[in-house]
Amino acid sequence: MSNILxxxxxxxxxxxxxxxxxxxxxxxxxxxxxxxxxxxxEDYERDRAEKKLLAKLQEAEMAVxxxxxxxxxxxxxxxxxE
Length: 82
Known about the structure:
Blueprint (H helix, E strand, L loop, with lengths): L2 E4 L6 H7 L6 E5 L2 E6 L2 H25 L7 H9 L1
Parallel strand pairs: 1-2
Antiparallel strand pairs: 2-3
């Protein structure tokens, strides 16, 4: 279940933080519209790592598509020695 609170509830931030548990972010609204999200640090770090991985995968797909992503066996061996 989503925790949705008005941003004014931050006056009592301890209560907001209690509601923010791993896997359950707290959404803060301002004037009835979504404005901020409070996340558990592990969730934040996992999201950042996933985003970084997806960017690397997209970069690799583009390299394969244009033909620059392939290495010969000799190039691979040389790269592994470094």
